[in-house]
Amino acid sequence: MDKKGITWQEISEKLKRFKRADMTYKSGRILGSMCTCPHEIGLKAYYMFLESNLGDSGLFEGTKKLEKEVIEMLGDLLGKKDVCGHIITGGTEANIMAMRAARNSNKVKDPEIIVPKSAHFSFEKAADMLNLRIREAELDDDYRIDIKSVKELISSKTVAVVGIAGTTELGVIDPIEKLSNLCVAKNIYLHVDAAFGGFSIPFLKEKRFPKFDFSLEGVSSITIDPHKMGLAPIPTGCILFRDRSFLKSISTETPYLTEKEQSTIVGTRSGASAAATWALLKYFGRDGYAKIAEGCMEVTEFLAEGIEKSGFKLIRKPELNIVAFKSDKIIIDEIVSQLEDKGWAVSVTAYPKAIRIVVMPHVKMEHVKEFLDDLEEIHSKHVLDGLPQENEKNTYLKLADKTGQGK
Ligand SMILES: *Cc1c(COP(=O)(O)O)cnc(C)c1O
Q1: How many CB atoms lie within 10 A of CB 189?
Q2: pLDDT-based confidence at 387, cuts 50/70/90?
Q3: In which domain, by residue range, is 383 found?
Q4: Bridge-based pairing state of the strands 112-116 and 158-164
Q5: CATH number of residue 222's parent domain
Q6: Given the CA of residue 34, which atom of ligand 1 is nearest to it?
Q7: Atom of ligand 1 at shortest distance to CA of 95?
Q8: Which residues pair with 314 in a beta bridge?
Q9: Are residues 185 and 326 in the same domain?
């Protein structure tokens, strides 16, 4: 750190240099992220509440009211208006809070949680922090959690079952109703991770998605991320609990603050995130969000069709705005590297190994057309060159490498 300060003029010049090295959503080149350009209405509201701290909410009665209203609106969207919960940093914090509530509400020795193989890695963090053992449920042929496998894993040690409404890798919606019935029968806590799908499934009505929310009596908590399809600025996540007792089970007394107890993991907590979400829910309404979700699905379907036409294979027909594909002829890493050379940032899934594109609102038709042209070029070039072929063996080896890492 220097002894003397410098002017804003100089600072902004320096900052711009850093910024130039960043990719932008606006360019349409970020194809592997679940985040997007935050909407300007959210940014305005965020800016208005920058100094507000929901971790000391007695000082910010107005923001506290805002948060309460956001929780009510999101609860209403997800089938139960009188839920309780908090606006927090993201899906990870939400999932950790949910697992903590499940564990604390059912004290057993050596507690276990059952999560599908497709679960987000935040459950690994939760398990490590909370001393939970993860039991991984198998997936069926369509990459949904296999109910039979869940049944086999349930024991007296099970404190939670997790279902996902919009998996991170493929956008798959697990059969939550079946999980709910099972959990009601066995009296087990069911958490639904709708970090990604929560802001689109309720709006894509014409597709008649199965029930996944609090309208199912077995659902104890839901994660929903406003900073993904909700277009809120980062960091904005949300955890909702069916019952206040769950929140109570994870609360700590807070002696020196204006509030008496706190259930969130972080202490000082941005009120701006709650304000931004409140503003966006009011600004868009159900119709506005439906338009966004449907717009993304239109681009998704166009992209999926184009990928098949260009000679690649879809892993499955997209259910939400995520497309995953591979090639019978070209190794995935080779495709990714060629796409990177052309300026595209895609991501790779672990199970099954595939190229993954998240069609967020910043990914427009014009970007997808350009992308498909590049993809077609890569395909024809490789077919002519006869480059190394993808085969079962090397897919398997790479998958093993990848899954071996975090374990
Ligand atoms: C993104 C995501 C998370 C993690 O959310 P963060 O906001 O990145 O912490 C958890 N679960 C699912 C299903 C997700 O898609």
Answers
A1: 24
A2: low
A3: 285-403
A4: parallel
A5: 3.40.640.10
A6: 1
A7: 10
A8: 325
A9: no
Classify strands 261-262 and 313-314 as parallel, antiparallel or unpaired: unpaired
Kindly report the protein residue whose alpha carbon is nearest to atom 15 of ligand 1.
Answer: 168
pLDDT of residue 79: 96
Confidence of residue 310 (pLDDT cuts 50, 70, 90): very high
- The answer to whether residue 34 sits within a structural domain is no
How large is the average pLDDT for residues 13-40? 97
Alpha carbons 160 and 112: distance in angstroms, whole number: 7
CA of 316 to the centre of ligand 1 (A): 21
The atom number, within ligand 1, closest to the CA of 196 reads 15
Please tell me the predicted confidence (pLDDT) of residue 172.
97
> Burial, 392: exposed, middle or buried (Cβ in 10 Å; 0-12, 13-18, 19+)?
exposed
The answer to whether 43 and 269 are in contact (CB under 8 A) is: no
Cβ within 8 Å of residue 214, ≥6 positions away: 75, 78, 79, 80, 83, 222, 240, 242
Residue 383 has pLDDT above 90, yes or no: no
- Is the same domain home to 238 and 323? no
CA of 166 to the centre of ligand 1 (A): 10
- Which residues 6+ apart lie within 8 Å of 146 measured at CB? 137, 138, 139, 140
261 & 355 share domain: no
Q: What per-residue confidence (pLDDT) applies to 207?
A: 63
Q: What is the mean pLDDT of the chain?
A: 93
Is pTM beyond 0.90? Reply is: yes
What b/e string do you get for 336-350 counting C-beta neighbours within 10 Å, with b at 16 or more? bebbeeeebebbbbb
Q: Judging by beta carbons within 10 Å of its beta carbon (0-12, 13-18, 19+), is residue 360 exposed, middle or buried?
A: buried
Distance in Å, CA 351 to ligand 1 centroid: 17
Does residue 236 or residue 257 have the better pLDDT? 236
Q: What is the pLDDT, as a whole number, of residue 389?
A: 53
